[in-house]
Amino acid sequence: MIVTAAARTVPYTWVEQTRDGGRIVLPYSGPECPGALLMLTVTKGTATGRAAGATFLMPLRDQKQPQSVLRAERAPDALRRLRITVTRTGQNVFLAPST
Gene3D superfamilies under this entry (predicted)? Predict the structure, then answer.
């Protein structure tokens, strides 16, 4: 599934609509790393992934962020460290420890 509008929350319906082993690619607009291009892989009803690069696209209508969040300074290595897991009960977004 390729999403062409930025989202800060990945709807679980997208995970349900993607077969096991399938990918969800979307621009991320959450505060941890706005502008990240996420690549998620779906396995047994859970999507997991990381940032594959940077991009900026218009946000989903119901997920707009204030400009201050989108323009906020992010950690220089945030793209490399960004991780996300999406399950039926919600999503977990975090920056992995620096190595």
Answer: Vaccinia Virus protein VP39
Please give the pLDDT value at position 72.
52
Residue 84: pLDDT over 60: yes
- Which structural domain range is residue 68 located in? 12-95
pTM of the predicted structure, to 2 decimals: 0.81
Q: 4 in a domain, yes or no? A: no
In a domain, 74, yes or no: yes
DSSP letter string, 32-54: TSTTEEEEEEEETTEEEEEEEEE
Do 63 and 73 meet the contact criterion of CB atoms below 8 Å apart? no
Q: Is residue 22 a part of any domain in this protein? A: yes
- Residue 2: which residues within 8 A CB-CB, separation 6 or more? 25, 26
Overall number of domains in the chain = 1
Q: CA-based diameter of the chain, in Å?
A: 37
